[in-house]
Amino acid sequence: MTSFVILPMLRRDAEKRFVTRGILLSSHPSSFVEAPSLATIMGCCKCCTPKVQAIVGLSSAPLNFAILIWAIAEKVRWTPFYVPLECDTPTPDGVRLSLLSMPSPYAESMGLTPGSPPHGIYANMTVSTSCFNPGQAKTTILAAGFEAVELAPNLTDLENGGFGVPYTVSARAHLAGDAVYPIGGRGEMVTVAQTAMTMENILASMTPDAIARGYSLSYARVTQTVQTCAAIFGLVSCTDVPSEQFCGSYAGNCVVPVLDSSGDPVVPEQLEPALCAYTGKLCGEEAEVHAQLSPEAMGIQVVNRTACDAALGLPNGTLCNAIEAPGVDPATLRPRAVEPAITLTTEALARMNEGLAVAESAINMMIWLCIGFQGLLFVINLASGLFNLRKHLRAKAAQAEARGAPPTLATNALDGKA
Questions:
Q1: Out of 44-48, 216-220, 225-229, 320-324, least confident range
Q2: What does pTM read for this prediction?
Q3: Burial letters for 94-115: b for 16+ Cβ neighbours within 10 Å, e otherwise?
Q4: What's the domain range around 313?
Q5: How far apart are the first and last CA of the chain?
Q6: Is residue 2, in this structure, part of any structural domain at all?
Q7: Torsional sign, CA 166, 167, 169, 174
Q8: How confident is the prediction for the chain on average, in pLDDT?
């Protein structure tokens, strides 16, 4: 009986102390207002239990691991960072002299029928070039603002040691539409060229001095805007980069198949004279091209020198070059493809590499920060989850053992009475 009396007394004594403490706490108004309720305390404690922390940690770790794998996959996808377009080699061709309209006596001297004004070569040509994009950025050459201008140098300035200024426009080209190269796909650039080579420009390229050299100089200026769209972690960003390049190259005589009215070679094959590209183009700033452009640097070699034909009107003893060039077969004088079609000046190449390095650095920084941050969170959440899971299991086992033991207070009281 003693135990049944003592337990209520202990309960009333505890309640009395709790009420007294509550009164003391509430004697100050601020203390009464700020005192947290028991339910609030119990709720916060439930949020901080090892069980909840284990669930949070072990649930977050797989998410961190998935993002970590995603970031590593992005790094692999962007290695290497820059891969140039792979374009199909176009069929080599030239500007046919059959398109040339010349007055007498120039026409007869070239085996042509005298033509009507305006004299020169005036023709339109459409050229299609297909390319494959192996990179990780969608590339679009915008038709708006695109212009390629062929420039004929001033021969008087060239003969005086200059660079051929002022230039004369001999052809213009524009895009029929945007040239779009999707990621891992093919795109096509359709260029419409309008040739307008005046009689003076043609005769200038066919002077005895030019024939003696075996090649002539030509320039071009290309203005374009390239749009690049790339995705990193699913976020797509597009950048428009306008540019203007000045290019220089060499051209000369060649022979090409005669075409019928539908544009197909006639059968049996016949050949006619034409003007063909002997080299690729060297592009960059105008001053850079003037400083670095030379026949030798572009692959032209003089293999022999013989006395020039007297019909050229050159001084006796003048030697004419027999040359070999990348763009013409020396045995047949037929045009052949030049690879690469475009090379950059030293400075232009350095600028391009610098721009690519800046872009690559920005993307790599984003990827490496994500890899490092998610890797750290994965380790922390996994360790926290496992630690709190073990802590929760131990506490649960201890509670189970405590529930299985007999009440110590009642047992001791009965033993004392006995």
A1: 44-48
A2: 0.79
A3: bbbbebbbbeeebbeeeebeeb
A4: 90-338
A5: 12
A6: no
A7: negative
A8: 86
Q: Is residue 266 classed as helix, strand or coil in its secondary structure?
A: coil
Instruction: Give dist(CA 410, CA 14) in Å, integer.
Output: 18
Cβ-based neighbour number of residue 369 at 10 Å: 11
Residue 81 covered by a domain = no
- 3-class secondary structure per residue, 10-42: HHHHHHHHHHHHHHHHHCCHHHHHHCCCHHHHH
Beta strands per DSSP E along 48-178: 86-87, 95-96, 100-101, 120-132, 137-141, 147-152, 168-175
Largest CA distance in the chain: 148
Residue 141 lies in a domain: yes
* Signed CA dihedral, 7, 10, 16, 18: sign only: negative
CB contact at 8 A, 139 and 240: no
The answer to whether the beta carbons of residues 195 and 124 sit under 8 Å apart is yes
Query: If you count them, how many residues does the chain have?
Result: 418
Q: How many domains are there within the chain?
A: 1
CA distance linking residue 166 with residue 157, whole number of Å = 8
